Backbone:
């Protein structure tokens, strides 16, 4: 009986917390469907309209901003999956001189505020003539210290006996990485995808610093110009919020199962 009560209260707590997260997004969706005359009023679904979405698509470069965000996010995501995962594997499984120093430097980078690094990175981008380009938006973020740390900790949970058995069968380190480690890391990789996609898709400070040409705006920067243009019309502003948030929800739903499986079966798949 006590276990049922405990389970009931856990679910109740989850419902309460979910309401705090769902209600603001629900409000954004509701407001985005209001006409200008209905702003600030509660109206029935029969009065809802999709004109705001039409206005945003017609009166802005939304498709260009979406394209830029997709290219930048996919580029950084692929770079993170390759660089972070391989770096984490080397730090967790390979023995070489200076490994501890490298790991210490990565941890140190995580402690440095992001805002502190903007000026030196921007100076390097200017010297390379990468302003208003995909190079400047993507390359500085192909490596993420936190995600390296995340993957390293996961690799450390995988039993070394699996590697030893693979070496007995004649596999080298590269083959072990691709044929043993990566299949066992689906959950951690799914988690990495969610973190990398969300952080990049929502990024604003660096794109608005680097780009001054509207043709290179990513979605966050472009929608911010809509907010400045239509600040007196919250229905159009909330339309931009919905368009920015929906891709994140889709990615999370796609990789949610992999993340849950990785947490539940850490290093025990076989």
Residues:
């Amino acid at each position: 009986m006590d276990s049922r009560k405990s389970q009931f209260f856990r679910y109740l707590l989850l419902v309460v917390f979910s309401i705090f997260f769902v209600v603001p997004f629900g409000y954004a969706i509701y407001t985005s469907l209001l006409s200008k005359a209905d702003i600030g009023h509660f109206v029935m679904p029969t009065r809802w309209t999709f004109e705001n979405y039409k206005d945003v698509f017609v009166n802005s470069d939304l498709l260009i901003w979406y394209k830029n965000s997709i290219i930048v996010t996919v580029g950084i995501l692929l770079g993170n999956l390759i660089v972070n995962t391989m770096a984490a594997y080397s730090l967790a499984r390979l023995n070489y001189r200076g490994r501890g120093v490298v790991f210490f430097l990565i941890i140190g980078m995580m402690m440095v505020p992001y805002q502190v690094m903007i000026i030196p990175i921007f100076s390097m981008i200017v010297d390379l003539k990468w302003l208003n380009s995909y190079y400047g938006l993507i390359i500085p973020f192909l490596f993420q210290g936190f995600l390296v740390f995340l993957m390293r900790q996961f690799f450390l949970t995988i039993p070394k006996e699996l590697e030893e058995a693979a070496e007995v069968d004649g596999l080298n380190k590269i083959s072990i990485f691709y044929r043993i480690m990566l299949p066992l890391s689906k959950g951690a990789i799914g988690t990495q995808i969610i973190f990398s996609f969300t952080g990049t898709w929502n990024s604003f400070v660096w794109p608005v610093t680097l780009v001054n040409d509207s043709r290179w705006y990513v979605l966050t920067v472009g929608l911010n110009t809509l907010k400045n243009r239509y600040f007196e019309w919250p229905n159009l502003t909330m339309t931009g919020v919905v368009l920015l948030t929906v891709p994140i929800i889709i990615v999370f739903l796609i990789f949610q199962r992999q993340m849950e499986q990785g947490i539940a079966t850490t290093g025990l798949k076989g």
Summary: Residues 30 and 48 are 8 Å apart (CA to CA).
